[in-house]
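Class prep. Sample record?

___
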Amino acid sequence: MTFLKLKDKHVGSILAASYLGYTSIFWFYPFIWLAVLSLTEWRFVGTPTFNGLNNFILVMQDPLFWKSMLNVLRFLMYYLPIVFIASFLFAFGLQKLKYGRTFVGLSFLLANVSSGVAYSIVFSKIFSQDGPLNTFLYDWFGFTLPWLTSPDLAMLSIALVVTWKFVGYYGLILFSGLNSIPKEIYSAATLDNTGTIKRLFHITLPMINPQLIMVLVLAITVSFAIFTEPYLITGGGPLNSTTTPMIVMYETAFMKMQPSWAATMSIFIALTSFGIILAVRKLLERKVEIV
């Protein structure tokens, strides 16, 4: 009995130590290494030499990097409303299902664990000028769209692909929020003759606010980290309209052989995404009181 008590007593310490070890190895140490590397000149070989803030000056003067950052904001303008609406509709539909919830949920979740290379190649064929999507549009409506060759539509195409990947994952998060809403609240709203739209904006969305914030944070994080889809589907084109910071960072590190410069870019990306997430959370975070 003493052994069991002793073991239970140390469970929290063991779990905390495991988490701290994971955080230190995979987050804290890499960030410190990036911070040090950003202050040096290094080309994968030899000893890094200290060069102060020179890398930060070079990054601030790099037009392609800042264009890629603006591209992320454009991507967010497409991606956030599409993925939020699609995820909520999926969660709402899943909640209404009486049978097969597990099967449907897992089916949509498979997209999230699929190979990025595989589905990017598939979608590049779907969105190509003579692909099945344009074939459908031409057969039924008499026109085609330059999905991957137009600077205006290329980023939308990437946003649709990334939405396909994450809609199941985000939808399950929102589904858990919808299931946590007490049914008595909806019953009371029905007795008060509350309309569907009013119920949505005054009950449902406020009650799943924590899940909405979580999805928003994940979506913003994904937006700054996308690489595979634009790199394989459009190659960052046309006219660098789908070039993302990750693509610029990759090419800087491994094609221009400037890992120190790329490390500095990663710091800019991390700070920008963190700042946007904090600002959005402050705007959306509020207490929901049920009277």
Notes: Strands lie at 40-41, 49-50. The longest helix spans residues 2-37. The chain has one domain: 62-284.
